[in-house]
Structure formats: C-alpha cells, structure tokens
Amino acid sequence: MVETPLILQTVDLTKHFGMIKAAERISVEVNQGELVGIVGANGSGKTTFLNLITGYLKPERGRILLMGRDTTGLPPRTITRLGVARSFQVPQLYRHMRVLESVLLSLAAESGNGGSFWQPLFKESRRAEALETLKRFGLSAYAHRPTSELPEGGRKLLDIALSFALKPKLLLMDEPTSGVSIEDKFEVMDTLVKVLQESNVTTIFVEHDMEVVQRYGWRVLVFDEGQVIADGKPDNVLADPEVRKTVLGRV
Amino acid sequence: MDIGLLTIIIFDGLNYAAVLFLIAVGLTFVYGVLRILNISHGAIYGLGAYMATWLTILLLNKGLPPYLSYFVLLTGAIIIGLITGPSIERLCLRRIYGSDIHIQLLLTFSILLILDDAMKLIWGVEPMFMSEPYFLLGQFSVGGIIYPRYTFLLIGVSASFGVFLVWLVRGTRFGKLVVSVIQDREISVAMGINVGLIYTAAFTMGALSAAIGGAFIAPTISVAPGFAAEVVVMSFAVVAIGGLGNLEGAALGSLIVGLARALAIHLVAELELAVIYLIMVLVLAFRPQGLFGAVEERRI
Amino acid sequence: MRPNLRVVSIVSALLILVPLAMPSWVVFILTKALFTFIAVLGVALLLRGGQLTFGHALFFATGTYTVGFSVKWFGFRDALLLVPMGALTGLIMAALVGLIMARYRGVFFAMLNLAFSMILYAILLKFYWVTGGTDGISVGTATFLGFPLRAGTYPFYYLTLVIAGLITYVVYRFLASPLGYFLRAIADNEIRIEYSGESVRRVIYLTYILAGGLGGVSGVLAAFTVGHVVPEDAFWFQSGQFVFIALLGGFEGILGSLMGAVAFEFIQTYSSKYFPYAWQLTLGGIMLFIILFRPGGLWAIYESLVSRFSSKAEGSTHG
Ligand SMILES: Nc1ncnc2c1ncn2[C@@H]1O[C@H](COP(=O)(O)OP(=O)(O)OP(=O)(O)O)[C@@H](O)[C@H]1O
Ligand SMILES: [Mg+2]
After folding, report:
1. Is residue B294 part of a domain?
2. What is the domain count for chain B?
3. Can you name the residues that pair with A128 across neighbouring β-strands?
4. Using DSSP, how many helices (H) and how many strands (E) does chain C show?
5. Domain for residue B24, yes or no?
C-alpha cells in the first residue's frame, strides 16, 4: 500500500441542528505533518467539525476519510484507535483521579493494555513514560495531585496530554488556550507546538484568537455558519477584511 | 379465548392500569422535576393504604354514614401526603441534591426501609380489612359478566388525578415555574423563583399520588406490610416503559403493564409477577429511553 | 490503592487466630460475615464505577440454587466442586444479563438489576414443582472430598476464609489493573474513556461478570451455612442488605467491605435479639445516618482514625 500524504479528507460534510447549520458541505483536505488552525465566530461550527471527524456526531451527508480509510459513521472509540485523538473545549478529565494516574490510563489504552485486569496499571516503564509526558507538558509538579486541584490552564494542558499520550497520528485540539490568560497564551502554545513538532503529529487546532493562529498555524480554515469560507496561509487569509469581520463581528 | 374471559381480562387490566397510573404518575412527576427516583414512593403508598383503612374503620365504628367513607379515604391519603412529602423533601432530599445518583437512590431506599417498618410498628403485622367502600357500590353485569362498580371509581380517581397534574403543569402559574425550574435551575434562581418551595411542592404532589393510590386500592385488598418495594419496582417499570419524567408515558405504561398482568393472571398464572419485569426489560432492551422519552446527548 | 502489607497481615492474623478463642456461635457469625463479604465485594466493585445495583441477590440466589438443585437432582453436595460451580453459574448468569445491563447507568442500572432479580424470585416462588416454592430446598450438610463439613465448625470457617482470601487477591489485582482504574473512571467521565479508545460498556460488562461470579460463590457458601435455600435469596431485601453493607463499609478499599460485613452480622444478631420487629428500621436508620453524616462509611472512619493516630505519633517522635 502506498503511504498517502493525505491524513484527513472530508467531502461535503453536513450537519444541521434543526434550523442551525452547524456544518454545511465542508470539503477539506489536510496533509500529513501540517499544523492547521481553525477560526470562526462563536457558534460557527468549529467544535461540530471536530465532533464529526471523531465520530461523536454523525453527519447527515458527506464522507470522512482518515488516512485513506472511510470512517464515516464509526464511533469515537474506533476512530481513536485508528490514531486520531482530540482534546476538548471544556477539559474532559477524571475528576477523582490523580494526574499521573490519568496519564497512565491513556498510556495503557494506547499500548492495547487498557483492558488488562491482571497486570497492574503502575508498571515501572509506564510510570516513567507518564512522568516524562507530564514533564514535557510542564505538569510535573501536579503528578500526584488530584486532577480537580489543577488550575484552569493546567486542566487544558492535561486534557491535551491525555490525548497526546495516545500517540496519535492526527491530533485535534479544541481551543487549547481558552481559559488561559492573555499573557500566558503564547507560552502555552510554544510548549504545545514544540512537543507536537518533536513527535511529528499532524495537528488541527481551533482558536478564537487570530493572533495565535497567525503565529502558529501554517494554514488556517475560517468557519462561518458551518461553512469553510476561507482556506490558506494565515498571512493572506487573515489580512482579508471580510474574514476579519466575520470572525470578529459576532464575538 | 372466549369473549367472557376477554372482557374480564380487559376489565382487570383497566383496573390494574388505573391503580398503577395513580402511583406511577407521582413517581415520574417527581423524577421530572427533581431528577431523583424516589424509591420511598412505595412506602408512602403503603402508609396511604394504612392510614385510609385505619381512619375509615375508626369513623365507621363511630357511626359515620358509609357513603362518606370515600371522603375519608381521600382525607387519610391527603394527611399522609402532606406529612411525608414536605418532611422527606425538607429533611433528607434537600441535603443530597447534586450528589451522585447512587447516593440519592440509597437515601430514598433507606427511607423506604424505615417507613416500611414504621407501618408494622404503628399498625401491627396482622392484615387489615375494610371493604365497605368497595361493596357499597355493588356490581354491574355486561353480557353475563358480573363486575364490581368500584373499578369505575378507581379509574375515575386515577384519571382525575392525571388530568389534575397535567393541568397543574400546563395550565397554571405554578406549572410555568415548575417548567422553568426543570429547564434551568440556575436561571430560575436568578429570576427570583423560590426553587426550594417548588421542589417541596412537586415532591408533595408525588407523595399525594402514592398515598391516594394506596388509599383507594385499600378497600379491594387486605392491607398488610411488606409490599412497599414491589410497588415501587412495579411503578418504575411503568414509568420506564413510558419514559422517565413523562406524564403521558406513565399513562401508556400503566395500560401496557395493567393489561399484560391481567393476561398473565388469567392465562399463565405462574408468570403473574414476572411478566411486569419482563415487559420492562423488553421495552428497555429495544428503547432504552422508554417509549416517549427523548435521548439526552451531552454536548462537548 | 497501595496494599498496606502491615494492615493485610494484621487482618489476616486476626481472621485466622481470633476464631480459635471464640465460641462456636461467633465462628458461625464470622463464617456468615465472610461469605457475605464476598457478595458485597461485587456490589462495591460496581459502586466504584458509580453504578448501584438493587438486584445483586440475583447472583447470590443463582449460587444458592446451584447447590439446591445439585442436592435435589444428584444428591451431590461436595464443596470442592460446588464452589467453582457457583462461581461459574454466577458468571454465566452475569454474562447473559450483563449483555443488557452494560447499556445502562444510574437509575436504570439500579432498577433493571432489581427487575431481573425479581424475575428470578418470581420464578423460584411460582414454579414450585421444580424449585420447591416458598419452602425452598433443604441442602443439608456440605462434604469436602467426602468428609462432612458442618457449618459453624472450624474446617468450614477456614475453607470460607481461604476462598475469601483468594477472592480478595483477585479483586485486588483487578482494582490495581488498567481495567480497575477505567472502572473508577466511568463514574468520572465516560467521554474521556471512549476517546481513549476504550469501551465503557466492555469495562462495565467485565466488572459485572466478575461481580456475578462473586455472588455465585457467596451463594454456595451461604447455602451450606444455612443448610437451606429459599426464594428470598433472590428477593430485593437480600440485595438491599448487600448494598447496605457496601455503604456501611465504604466503597473505597476492600477492607471496608470486610469491616462492613462483620459489623453487619453482629448488628443483625443483636438487633434481632433486642428489636426483633425493627430490622429494616435499624438498617434504614443506620443507612440514613451514614449518607447524611458519614458518607465514607466505616472505612473513612478507620482512615481518619489512622491518620489522626499517625500524626500524633509523628508529632511525639519529632517533639
Ligand atoms: N448537540 C447540539 N444540539 C443542538 N445544537 C447544537 C449542538 N451542538 C452544537 N449546536 C449548535 O450548532 C452551532 C455550532 O456549534 P459549535 O459548538 O460547533 O460552534 P463553535 O464554533 O465551536 O462555537 P464556540 O466558539 O462557541 O465554541 C451552534 O449554534 C450550536 O448552538
Ligand atoms: Mg466550540
């Protein structure tokens, strides 16, 4: 089989909630190794797009191909196993668990060991790997604390770390810097981009802040009412006053 | 199957359905508003039956004209509803809103255990009989089948209560407040709605439903301890079939369970009890949210 | 969930040695506590996943009637084979019922379990020509490789203890494994589990099967301890008692369930002596108290005592 450089392809992806067009004939292609930003006003369908790709929502029309495979209609679990992980706009953490334990769970799931009921979760090698992961995300200090004690920025980072620990080929991040103060935004993004580039993970991230997209995205998709209205280099796309108006207009 | 048996099955089925609906509608209403499955519902039903029976016997012995006994039944039920409803909600439930579901279930379960024994301590373990209201109405016959008129009273009471609840929710100011609390608790609080009071009132309506159910079934049975849990499972079955929190669903569920139970009793007596649970399992296996329930998706 | 070797050895030593100094009625009660503990472990496991069952007696009764029918049909009452048989029938029952149950959570999980157990209860009650109806089946005394094994005697007690010990180890391994942690995670966040590529249903299903097996084993031992199996074994009240014990002990830690079971048996013994007509009231009252005032159960009380004690000890060594 020929290795296709195309990692994600959607064709005419459509999803409506009653009268709301959350996704409207979205056709997008993302190549391996890209770092793609998504911008759009509130309610323009950015999260819906991620939900569709990862199988949380089923499209009414259109198809999704991941690494050349048609995954339309598959549930999140199956898609995750194919190597697509995501983080969430509101971090999805294990409330009662410690930070280290939750990373260990991701690692166990990734190694196909998640279903083991006899081997301990705390294997020495796995533990070392989990600590290493936490270190890369700057969360070492919290390793033994319950996830509920993390500050907001830390919660976002852990949420991403849990997905990253699954060693995905494609990582989707939903507003990685929301809830992070403006001063800290670039620092957080620096950390994330560095970790992801080191591991060669193709990344799509949703972001409200155009400056962030401009600085980190190689390419940007602009969403409006479920449609992709622009797609290209951030410098070109975000310079367009029409784009600026739709993105900023309704915030 | 001959037509006579069929008629009896239908009458029996409607009879059960009326009783089941009367009890289940309160359970589903409380769940709809408070999002708590009140396991102690079955015990309130038992208390209603005991109180009504005891009070009626007492007053009949004092020379109460028998035709007033229906009024006494209702009074007994209302007394129980008004005592248990507010006290359970204010003293216990109030402390566990927002707790994990299993904590809420355990709490109402423990109340069931307490009340179930309290009945034995208050009224003893000997069965109590009080069938005047039942016999007073006499019987009627259709096509050679003789059937007690009391069934109509049951159906009437049950339907009235259902209509009353629906009117309360859809046609009154109280109902508007309830709906607003169901839709968004926090906004309701912000708008100055006394959510605590709404909860107490809603729970008391539920308690009344159970107590009235117990009171009006009492003349047709021997009132004895220990059936509280069965009643609550049965009404849960009804409610689950219709869709938890759904008033119309409770009506449909009662009809299905009532008729199925009547069929089973007359055709395969061994399955009398099991059939209710079997229906519930079957419905839920194919439609987990119940017949009328909507699926709740979490937005992420 | 770190195994505290010292605690484990102390508890084991107590369970091995204390009965030797006790009259036979205490040995009898401890035996009951042990097999109850086994069933309660199943309930507590599911509770760790945030799932409450009001129907665990389904598996308990599957175990007791495994013995019942074995004695009735084959005259076979050897514990060596029947204990694994009970585990197996419990597992199979759970594997079947679990196919439906794994789809449900919360209120539905609790009540559907109740419904299934009540179906079994109704069957045991009504199909009396097979099951003996209300009278149940008398199973007499167990044998072990042909030797009689009387309830309330040391051999029976130690057999139960060994089984409970093995099961504790299995459950401990389970809880320390990824699956055990995913189980806890269910109560926290199912979406994250699915987005880790793990199946929530699968986790619940496997736990349910394990819990069912434990219920079966418990039932077999119970049948031989009591010498009699009855439909009430499947009744909601039996399930309710398991839930009570799990709550009493606290869901965290296996030791909690053990403490709960021992406490329960003694409460029952004294309660039936002094308040014979208020057993449910006693249970309900204690339960209400725990939920409103001591949500962690005995285990939490124990832990807070330990931490207070050890901080005092530390204070004195440093001071
Ligand atoms: N499960 C759902 N049911 C009904 N409507 C929904 C659902 N999910 C999303 N929507 C609607 O679809 C539209 C797109 O929502 P989406 O969450 O994708 O927007 P978004 O671009 O991520 O917005 P934000 O920047 O606020 O996160 C919105 O109008 C939203 O209200
Ligand atoms: Mg969004």
Report:
1. no
2. 1
3. none
4. 14, 4
5. yes
Distance B167 CA to ligand 2 centre (A): 40
Q: Tell me if B279 is assigned to some domain.
A: yes
A22 CA to centre of ligand 1 in angstroms: 6
Burial B262-295 (b: 16+ CB within 10 A, else e): bbbbbeeeebebbbbbbbbbebbeeeebbbbbee
pTM of the model: 0.93
| B208/B84 Cα distance (integer angstroms) | 9
Q: Give buried/exposed letters for B31-48 (b at 16+ CB in 10 A, else e).
A: bbbbbbbbbbbbbbbbbb
First and final C-alpha spacing in chain A: 46
Ligand 1 in reach of A250 Cβ (< 6 A) = no
Q: Per the domain annotation, does B75 fall within a domain?
A: yes
- Please state the three-class secondary structure of A145-182 as a single string: CEHHHCCHHHHHHHHHHHHHCCCCCEEEEECCCCCCCH
Q: Which of B113, B274, B298 sits opposite C281 (nearest CB)?
A: B113
Tokens of A149: 């004690």
* Strand stretches in chain C, DSSP E: 137-138, 142-144, 147-149, 228-229
Distance (Å, rounded) from C-alpha B62 to C-alpha B56? Answer: 10
Orientation of helix C178-188 relative to helix A99-110, angle to 10°: 120
Kindly list the residues from chain C whose CB atom is less than 8 angstroms away from the CB atom of residue B272.
122, 126
Q: Which residues in chain A belong to E strands, given as ranges?
A: 6-17, 20-31, 35-40, 61-66, 69-70, 84-86, 170-174, 202-206, 219-224, 227-232
Give Cβ neighbours of residue A151 (< 8 Å, ≥ 6 apart). none
DSSP tag of A121:
S
Cα→Cα distances C46→A96, A215, B233, C182, C184, Å:
16, 48, 21, 12, 9
Answer for the pair C240, C114: CB distance below 8 angstroms, yes or no.
no
> Looking at residue C157, what is its pLDDT?
95
Cα dihedral C88/C93/C96/C97 (nearest 10) = -140
Q: What is the dihedral of CA B253, B257, B263, B266, to 10 degrees?
A: -150
| Neighbours, chain C (3 or more CB pairs < 8 A) | A, B
Give the pLDDT mean for C182-199. Answer: 94
- A226: its two tokens: 């479920």
CATH number at residue B131: 1.10.3470
Burial class (CB in 10 A: 0-12, 13-18, 19+), B143: exposed
Asked if B102's CB is within 8 angstroms of C110's CB, the reply is yes
Compute the 3-state secondary structure of chain A and give helix, strand, coil in percent, each to the nearest 5. Answer: 40, 25, 35
List Cβ neighbours of C138 (8 Å cut-off, separation of 6 or more). C71, C227, C228
- Ligand 1, atom 24, lies closest to the CA of A42
Q: Which of B39-43, B50-54, B183-187 has the lowest mean pLDDT?
A: B183-187
Which amino acid is located at B27 in the chain?
L
Q: What is the mean pLDDT of chain B?
A: 89
pLDDT (tens digit per residue) in C48-72:
999 999 999 999 999 999 999 999 9
Which range marks the domain in which residue B20 is found?
3-286
* Cross-chain residue pair A110–C198, CB shorter than 8 Å: no
Interface of B with A in 261-300 (CB under 8 A): 300
- Of B114, B118, B236, Cβ closest to residue C111: B236
Query: From the DSSP assignment, how many helices (H) and strands (E) are in chain B?
Result: 12, 2
Nearest-angstrom CA–CA distance, A229 and A234:
13
CA-CA distance, A101 to C194, in Å (whole number)? 17
What is the distance in angstroms between the Cα of A184 and the nearest Cα belonging to chain B? 25
Determine, for residues A77 and C198 on separate chains, whether the beta-carbon distance falls below 8 Å: yes
Q: What is the dihedral of CA A80, A86, A88, A93, to 10 degrees?
A: 60
Considering only residues C181 and B138, tell me which one the structure prediction assigns the higher pLDDT.
C181
C192 in A contact zone (CB under 8 Å) = yes
The per-residue pLDDT of chain A, averaged, comes to 91
Q: Which residues of C touch B231 (CB under 8 A)?
A: none
